[in-house]
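Submission checklist for the structure archive. All mandatory fields must be present; incomplete records are returned to the submitter.

[x] Identifier: Ephrin type-A receptor 3
[x] Organism: Ameca splendens
[x] Residue count: 240
[x] Sequence attached
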Amino acid sequence: PPSAPENPISTVNETCVTLEWSPPRDTGGRGDIFYSLLCRKCSGDGKKCAPCGSSVHFVPRQFGLSSASVLITDLQPDSNYSFTIESQNGVSDLSPNPRGTVEINVTTSQTVSVVLKERRSKDSVTLAWQGPERPNGAIVEYEVIYYEKNQREQNYTVLKTRSNMMTVDGLKPGTTYVFRVRARTDGGYGTYGGEIELETSHEDVLAIGDPNQSTILVVSIAGGIVLLIFLVTCFVVSGR
């Protein structure tokens, strides 16, 4: 039988993981090497693990792999997994010795889903969000995708920023847009957070604290007083 696979590496992209490894150093003198994988989902401290189950998928397959790589999809976000890669050949089942295996641990990315604040006008929206609590590495940037509600298949826009806040301009007045945010680390992209629906204003509205607002308020009060005096005067004159 062959020895264990060597040099396993992982690449995390959202809730998908690509595993690659090197062939065993000792092939057992045979050329019919193939690989199989075991998947376990583990607790945060790694002390308790259980089989992944049928919800996790392997491409092209989980057992009988002829190539030294596999794509694993449909994992849970912000979760710990342990993968055991086993090398075999045509006489592995006849050997009493344990099969050669190597283990690799992976943590999937966490979603960005909490919007802290928003500001809207007739043609722009400002979003702010909180990054993942336990990102898979240092956050390099955030990606924001947005589109008109029910129009994603026709047209959508992707923007990127290093900040956790962004102003999106050039929007249509009185239109509902859907926003989603995800983080990218050195290990790849995390999962998009939930959909956030925001509607732009039909016309510009002065923000609270705008210095022009106090001026408008004073003018409005003065105009109201003048109108009231005029109406009182008219009433008195007509009464005479």
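[x] Structure attached
Curator remark: The chain is about 10% helix and 40% strand. Residues 205-219 have pLDDT under 50 and may be disordered.
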